[in-house]
User: Which sequence fits this backbone?
């Protein structure tokens, strides 16, 4: 099986923490969409597997695409791949794009899941992050989707914002839970040097929170969401029963994927490719790629990295089968001090971090690399 990803690298406004490749030249979008059809036709054979299990529109801001354009890309995928096993078609959306009219048209497409970038229910925090919407607009966007029958909804929230922990974070969590959505992604704010927040930090206008507070907020989020019945199944992801994100879970399981669009990444077998065209080059049909060969070592390290960020952890049987028994033994030996410290749990043929310790995953992962 395989998955398909469409990257829409356009944003009307740049969030103060965002370090992704995205551009404001929304007028290029029609040409870009036309070229995405062409790239999809040309690159379909990149995947070894013809059967797709999920399709994902990410960005940037995919909700800048008209629902008809979204459906046309899905139809193109149906012409090129076997989509009979596709269970999930997700579009990332910005709350203020979800007008009544847009939602009504979206509900008529094959999209069956919407991932909404809400980030916070505190208007002041939203202003600091330079988001386009208010807390109320975000809430209304979710209600509008639910009224239109689009009930498979995920929302993103951000914690670790200086000055917006405590009651502000609690209120965001309460309002998020009150929406009754099946999936919540919760990310710690990271400050990248080239972002507006990064520059504010350099000027002393913003002071990131310290590690201890980070951990407290991480646990506050974990405790609130798990107490409400959400399973903390990946470091940043929580789901009600049967609401795990299928597309992202496939990434974490090492399933091959084809990414279409400027800045999109693809992965198959021993190859990783990414499109380095700017949006303008892409709009002109000038597709440029870079690629990397993945050797045995990269595959093992990738497995360790994704497995330890998920609640299932490392399956030593899977490691032995894919990479040999000596790799499984090496991992057990490398994890010993973490097991003794109670950070890593050794359960039968599994090594895993309890979700409340996921914050330590980077240190554990590094120690288990080849
Ligand atoms: S909407 Fe997403 S991609 Fe666009 S600027 Fe904000 S965080 Fe970045």
Assistant:
């Amino acid at each position: 099986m395989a998955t398909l990803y469409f990257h829409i690298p356009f944003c009307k406004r740049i969030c103060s923490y965002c370090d992704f490749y995205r551009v404001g030249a929304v007028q290029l979008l029609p040409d870009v969409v036309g070229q995405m059809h062409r790239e999809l036709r040309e690159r379909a054979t990149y995947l070894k597997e013809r059967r797709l299990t999920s399709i994902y529109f990410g960005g940037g801001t995919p909700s800048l695409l008209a629902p008809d354009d979204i459906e046309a890309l899905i139809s193109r995928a149906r012409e090129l791949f076997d989509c009979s096993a596709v269970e999930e078609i997700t579009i990332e959306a910005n709350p203020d794009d979800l007008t009544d009219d847009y939602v009504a048209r979206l509900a008529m497409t094959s999209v069956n899941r919407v991932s909404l970038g809400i980030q916070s229910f505190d208007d002041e925090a939203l202003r600091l992050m330079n988001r386009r919407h208010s807390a109320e607009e975000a809430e209304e966007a979710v209600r509008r989707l639910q009224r239109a029958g689009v009930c498979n909804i995920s929302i993103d929230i951000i914690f670790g914002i200086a000055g917006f922990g405590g009651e502000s974070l609690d209120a965001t969590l309460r309002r998020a839970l009150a929406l009754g959505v099946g999936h919540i992604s919760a990310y710690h704010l990271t400050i990248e040097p080239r972002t507006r927040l990064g520059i504010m930090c350099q000027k002393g206008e913003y002071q990131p929170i310290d590690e201890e507070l980070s951990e407290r907020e991480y646990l506050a989020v974990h405790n609130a969401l798990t107490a409400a019945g959400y399973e903390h199944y990946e470091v940043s992801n929580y789901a009600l029963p049967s609401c795990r994100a299928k597309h992202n879970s496939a990434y974490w399981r090492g399933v091959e994927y084809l990414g279409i669009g400027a800045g999109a990444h693809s992965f198959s077998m021993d190859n990783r490719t990414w499109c380095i065209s700017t949006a303008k080059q892409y709009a002109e049909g000038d597709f440029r790629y870079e690629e990397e060969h993945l050797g045995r070592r990269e595959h093992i390290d990738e497995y360790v990295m994704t497995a330890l960020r998920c609640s299932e952890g490392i399956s030593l049987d899977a490691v032995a089968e894919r990479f040999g028994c000596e790799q499984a033994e090496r991992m057990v030996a490398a994890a010993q001090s973490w097991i003794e410290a109670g950070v890593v749990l050794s359960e039968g043929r599994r090594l895993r971090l309890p979700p409340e310790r996921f914050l330590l995953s980077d240190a554990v992962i590094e120690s288990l690399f080849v």
About this structure: The chain has a mean pLDDT of 96. The domain at 296-370 is CATH 1.10.10 (Arc Repressor Mutant, subunit A).
